[in-house]
What we know:
The chain is mainly β and about 300 residues long. The chain has one helix at about 190-195, and strands at about 5-20, 40-50, 55-65, 70-80, 85-95, 100-110, 120-130, 140-145, 165-170, 180-190, 205-210, 215-225, 235-245, 250-260, 265-275, 280-290.
Amino acid sequence: LLQRRLQLDKLHIAQLTIDDQSPAATASAPQGVALPFRVSLAFIIDELRWTGPPALQASALSGRYRFDGNHHQLTIDGVQIAAGQYHAQASLLARAPLTLDLQVQGALTAPVPGSSQTLPLVATASAHGNLAGQDAVLSVQALLQPAPAGAPPAAGSTASHAMQATVSAQVSPWSPQPVIRTDATFNQLDLATLWPGAPLTLLTGTVRVQPDGNDWQGQVQVTNGLSGPWDKGRLPLDSALGQVRYDNGKWVIESLSANLAGGRLQLQGQVGASDQGVVAGGWQGKAQLRNINPA
């Protein structure tokens, strides 16, 4: 440290638990994240647990971190999350405009619906943009698809009906409503394959968010081909169709119709700030439930 440099050839942690119990606070836009010394660190974490929300468990995490005085650079050589093995590279400029460049690659194995076979999948994700200033905007892209195996899959083949997803989004990380625009499509999506502890699903549908003046509107349409009770590790949802609006600091559910738990739910309402911008902290609306089986 006397030479303004910290170097650790290897930091090995058997188990790391992160439990953030600090009071919730509004995030403020940073203008700089420079350190007073250079850093070079290689690390291995056998088990990582983040209490959330949302909770996350990962294993076999290894990588390298470096700060050269101008850039923070993080390389993840490997990490196991649920059924996926991932690696990543990230670079962040230490001073304004805090330019971020993040790349993630992954390989997963997913079950094939109605079969005992499994199918290899590949996942990629990226985030680019500047983090300095209240008007900072990031561009986010993500893709999940069957691993390439030469020729394109024939219609009706296992690969042509495999789990797939595409996401394109613009995010303003320091805004009260950080999602500016989102366009997501997914087919046969199993949440349990992607996230530890998530229910088994086969979700197919679309989610779209688009600006509406200073606010935004969202639409969701989804079906679930593997619905079932929570205690069986399933999601008790067959289908859902809804429209949501974020208006003057409050969430407005314009319409939501869902087939779930053997019955049907219809919902309208709002939660969040009042028209004067004061947080009400409560829910106002109406709901109709028919033939819902809570078991």
